[in-house]
Amino acid sequence: MTDRSGQSPLRSRDDLEREIDSLRAENARLREMIGTRADNVDTPPPPWTPELAAGGTTLFGDGDIAPLPKLDARSSARAKIGVFRALFCGRDDVYATRWDNSRTGKSGWSPAVVGGPANARKPDRAYLPLTDEVIEAHLSGRIHVGLYPLLLNDSCRMLACDFDGPTWPLDARAYQDAARALGFDAALERSRSGNGAHVWIFFAGPVAASAARRIGAHLVREAMTVRAELDLASYDRLLPAQDFLPKGSFGNLIALPLQGTCRKGGTTVFLDDSLAPHDDQFAFLSGLQGASVSGVNLVAQQLREVATGPVESTYRRPFRGDGPKPPDKILAVAGAMLAIDRIGLPPALVSALKHLASLHNPEYYEKERLRLSTWNTPRLIRCYEESIDQLLLPRGLREAAVSLAVEAGSHLEVRETAWASRTIEVQLGAVLDADQQVAFDELRRHELGVLVAPPGTGKTVVGCALIAQRTTSTLVLVDRQPLAEQWRERLQEHLGLKRRQIGTLGGGAGRLRGVVDVAMVQSLARREDIRELTSGYGFVIVDECHRAPRGAIFTGWDERPTSGRRDGRKKLGAARLPRWGEGREQPRQRRDGRRQRAVPASKADRCRETEPVVEAPRLVTSPEPGGYGLLWCSNLLGVWRPSRSFSGDLDDRGQLACCGANWRCHRGKAGHRSCQPVSGQRGKRSGGARRVRAIGLRAGAPSAVAAGAWRSRRSTRRPGKPATWGRAAANTQVRLMGGGRR
């Protein structure tokens, strides 16, 4: 038999076998690239049961765990509901239902209340309990039920992880494999939308939600060692979504699976390892087994918080063995950020670099501690960017990235990107003291550096000395107008520059000269031409760089290309700063939910000193966690910044606002000084504010300013507007409180 071309459509057995072998080899190569195993396609491996304690406790080995009754599609509805409720356990005093508005096209979830949605907003509403009848209506398709998994005692009976987006099959399978490797019987369910999945892990009894979520975070981290494309946002997709039940809330809900109508469309069903629905859904559910409570607690105790930042080692070997090896040499380009070529990098190394450029969000943990909602508050702050072929890390992580590559068995080769900068002729007109000279000598030898020293030790003078030593066009970034004015005065005083030679951006001015310019980071971040505007500088100084994690400084700095000198001299680039919270307390939460200013723990101690303590500058030249910066021209102790330490005597009333207008100092019975907060609201005359005004200062300003420099309240206060102050007050602030060498 021949076809129209005259050739036989039948192929020989040898040809078919060769083609099959070729397809298998290609399939194996593709599976290796995406991190899936071929042995999972046909016969999934049995769950591994680890030995957790000397007594022989295992995840599924406790004798008090009764297996679920075996079911199939022909079992009774009562038996199916019983198995369903035994696995999907949550709060039974309340549940949620899904609603759809055909008129507006909106949909959502809301707790079921007595009397229907019309009573949902009534203060005396009563919630409906979760009963067998409700589950029967859900399985039959009449309603879609949402479960609240977090119980009243901050425990849970199950853990779920939600995956969305076009890559959900690979992400969910990597997480499921990680759970199986740890010994959990994980079930994969396709979500209602069809464009996502839930991976369920069940417990034999109530487990602390914090322990369950720690295990879930560990599984996400393990999955990233074989699936680098798994986003760090997956840490926020665990359910329960909180360790503790928020006040006045039921916590996050999750849609229950096997909804009758959706099941007919192929969604809310459980999938096998080939991502095909199980033939008998209830037979599959009845074969699942919950992990023992003692085993889960032991596993959680052995795990620690996910490592992030350069302080801890973020590299983990894949749970599937060694995995693919990295290339012998990894190329990177040091520009505005450190661009690492990710082509050919194993997933374990890529995920380690991502965690290296990430930090735990203190606001998330503060809200969780206060039992506030963590909605829209990420668990991790990501400081990296990525593209198809590059991973962009903060430039200050260069040394940490090199060490990480060595730990993974490779070598990171970094190439500098040089940009033409302008040579300037300036000379230092000041004489450095011993401490300033030590800091200057150390900083001049490094490209990256952070200078940490108490106020009044002359950090601005050291910055001017570095400008004179490098003789290249310089950009000084500040975050407040008084600092910009102070820098302009110091540049004229110490470098002999004329005022018209110093460019200014922000505060009503917008012209850069290209010699030594001072720019407000807020104004720079709003510019659309940041790259072109900052491409001609060979040296950058960030004043108050402990504020660098703010979005304005990130936007203003990350977009600028790294400038180099034509003569090949080294430049001072971005450096890492201490982790948020080091040396200061986290922001406190008011009862009304508003954030309150962070109070440094060491602030009162510093103000108890009769005379200012001037310590030798502590120079940090190696990258440390936190944010961006170059030259630290402020105190390390917190976001507050007194212009300088005050060493004068107290007045007759025994009060002096030496730490800013939101604080007052007084002499106690023991004769020492201490700081107490006063009113920080403008226009509000509290007792502390009146006492501050009595000595010629006013509460509510960024720092203490002479009362004579303030405009009258009647002339500056508008209807509905707070009292304001003008430039004269800011200039007076610098003269009165900013004296001395900086």
Question: What characteristics describe this protein?
Answer:
15% strand, disordered C terminus, 28% helix, 26 strands, five-stranded antiparallel beta sheet, Translation Initiation Factor Eif1, Rossmann fold, disordered N terminus, single chain, alpha+beta, 742 residues, DNA primase, PRIM domain
Protein described:
This protein is of the alpha+beta class and 742 residues long. It has 22 helices and 26 strands. The strands form 7 sheets. The chain has a 5-stranded antiparallel beta sheet with strand order 7-4-6-5-9. Strand 10 and strand 11 (338-341) form a beta hairpin. Helix 5 crosses helix 6, helix 13 (434-443) packs across helix 14 and helix 15 crosses helix 22 (727-737). The chain is elongated. Mean pLDDT is 74; it is low at 1-9, 40-57 and 560-742.
Question: In summary, what is this structure?
Answer:
By secondary structure, the chain is α+β, with helices and mostly antiparallel strands.
Approximately what portion of the residues adopt beta-strand conformation?
15-25%
Task: State the low-pLDDT regions, or none.
Answer: 1-9, 40-57, 560-742
The largest β sheet comes out as: 5 strands, antiparallel
Q: Looking at this structure, what is the CATH superfamily of the largest domain?
A: HP0184-like
